[in-house]
Amino acid sequence: MKVDGIPSGCAISGMMSEDGRRIDGRVIIKSIACMHDRSNGLGGGFAAYGIYPKRKDQYAFHMMYDNIESKEATEEFFKDAFNVDKDEPIPTFRENGISNPPILWRYFLEVPENKLEFISERDYVMKTVMKVNSDIEGAFVASSGKNMGAFKGVGYPEDIGKFYKLEDYSAYIWTAHGRFPTNTPGWWGGAHPFTLLDWSVVHNGEISSYGINKRYLEMFGYRLELRTDTEVIAYLFDLLVRRHKFRTDRAIMALATPFWKDIDRMEPEQKKIAIAIRQVYGSTLLNGPFSIIIGHSNGMIGLNDRIKLRPMTAARKDDMLYMASEESAIREIAPDLDEVWSPRAGTAVIGTLRDVE
Amino acid sequence: MESQLPAEFVVNVDYEKCRRCKRCVMNCSFSAIEFKDKVTPNHRQCVACHRCATFCPESAITITENPLAYRYGYNWTPEIRKNILKQAESGGIILTGMGNPKPYPIYWDHMLIDACQVTNPSIDPLREPMELRTYLGAKPECLEFNSDSSLKTELAPQVKIDIPVVFAAMSYGAISLNAHKALAMAAKRMGTLMNTGEGGLHEDLAGYTDNIIVQVASGRFGVTSKYLNNSAIVEIKIGQGAKPGIGGHLPGEKVGEDISKTRMIPVGTDALSPAPHHDIYSIEDLSQLIYAIKEATDYKKPVSVKIAAVHNVAAIASGIVRAGADIVVIDGFRGGTGAAPMIIRDHVGIPVELALAAVDDRLRQEGIRNRASILVGGSIRQSADVVKAIALGADACIIGTASLIAMGCRVCQKCYTGNCAWGIATQKPELVRRLNPEVGADRLCNLLSAWGHEIQEVLGSLGINAIESLRGSRERLRGVGLGQETLDILGIKHAGIGQ
Q1: Percent of chain A with pLDDT over 70
Q2: What is the ipTM of this complex?
Q3: Which of A202, B20, B258, B448 could pair with A177 in a Cys bridge, judged by C-beta atoms 3.0 to 4.6 Å apart?
């Protein structure tokens, strides 16, 4: 089931209510569908935050299985690794041309106390995700965060959205992806978003520094066996923000680091920090053309590479923050905007949830 | 005993062109040309250093290999037969200079570099920033910040280099003061480093503190507190790629007034470097010396440890990092030397490509790669080798032979004779003055600038604009004509395999 690397073209779109208002999935489908020609039908997907309010303290695992054997093996593993509070098929609408879906199942999991003697809960969950993806043939974790989920597959994004009945989900953050891979693996797990815990990434572009980003992450126990460059983005955010406790702006400084010529002109304290980040985190620099939208429980981050080799437009209207590969995809769902701008190269657009409970 | 050894080279003089200006006679430092009514070659003395041919105003001189035929023997090559003749006449170890010339595999030439096409754009280094700046020194695993958002973590000392190429250790004694001056001036101008080697630091170079690596080797020549502190980095030399496991010997005739002062030994005495450091018989002793040096330099300078690439290099490097070294230098078996026994130079050690891959892997497996920078050398011949070394995992490369060639060296392998016609590997004043330090420095700067531009071109074609995105990115290399085991050691895929 694991396939070769997937350089890709693609379209991305993201929307967030900073007030935490939940919006149903039809809006984001409309936005990503507007950029139909940027994808080629070989992958589409969505990440949604706030969709399981009644089970917001449980890890929601969205699983993809090649066959019943891999499902049984995984469930056997889950039984030992977690308390499984509920499991059910992920609801789908099967009459719109999406072919050969894997078995799609979701689980609401709690970590038993006795597992956490030597490891933090999130490290434990991360390790189990890595283990399932690497060790159980035919099983793939599509998402593993709390109160969020990834819905993805092979097809045009608007068709994937209908297939997963996204109109039935309401979220305060939606991100979406339409894929234009330059080879044809036709693998559901290879579609975006890529996720780990509550991190999700939709990505347009190619990470030319993938080789060293991967080897760097492996030093910290991450196992990168999907062979797609996008997963390093999710893992790097996890490493920097969750494990090394970086503020978002500092993590951005490591991933899309300022040029030395700009660092040399910074104020002394800021300069000291920037130099230290480049010295210590040089291997985390994401190099090559990309625009990405990263989702997490408390917000959404849009980021371009250091010389902006991929498009990205951002906009605001009241409490809404929008980002997309093309302005048209934003205007399609919000014709009347307070503010529209093209974020500068290497400069993040950060949306933050107000009044986090 | 009359020598039976035939001449290696033949000096051909075109007497129709020759104006009898005697310039060749004055320039030949190996007594291979005399003037007896006309320019008269003494073929046996010729080493093919090209000094006469280069300076002949009429281009009347050519040097050819002696076309003397040997009865063919795949096993008994002419070289082996000549070596036996030499030893039958002398009873001694055969001495030689420069790096291993034997046709062992050169793995650099079996690796190819990736480039961007369509799905990711290449970057034009003439239009966009293309960053080569590198910092050498130990890095912490992570950074921590104070609640007022200032930096909490104190980094170990870091040394900035503007191009990931550093001049390799070559001592004053092995090479001339003018060569040292040229290296120091070029290092300063290019924002990189030169390395004193084990012969101390001549007082004329005291002003180059920020661009000098001072070496502490087994002979401890010229090592004082002032010497240690007059540096950017202090390096403990354990081994050298050309002669792993053996010491050094600077003959007394080279120890004149200046070298005597710099090395702190009497004029005319042999300078002997023992094979091991006699205070380092294991790793815990090395750790003591590392920390003794850190104490002596107030923890303000990275301490580097240089070793030759040998079979167990990965475990040794790991030990060195755990012993507290900030930088590990790995010198491959093709590295150069001023003088070494031929048997050692040609048969001991392993290729640096494999050693580097093994060390970088090992340090990553142990999660300590960040704790030291890795420098590699041992025949870095061109900027492509630098790019491949960095992709395999090196922080920077060291160049010795390449820098000497830039200054005029013709790689005649006679450094140990002290007769270097180009003023590089000699202490004879009349020869030393042939090398103008300013001109030497210009040539070295040109070489580094050229390599820097070439590295930037490759980065651009790889679609990356900072050297740290190449470092350790083995995914961007592919092997050609290599077996699976070699590919596994190098950690690269064979050409034809995609991502």
Answers
A1: 95
A2: 0.93
A3: A202
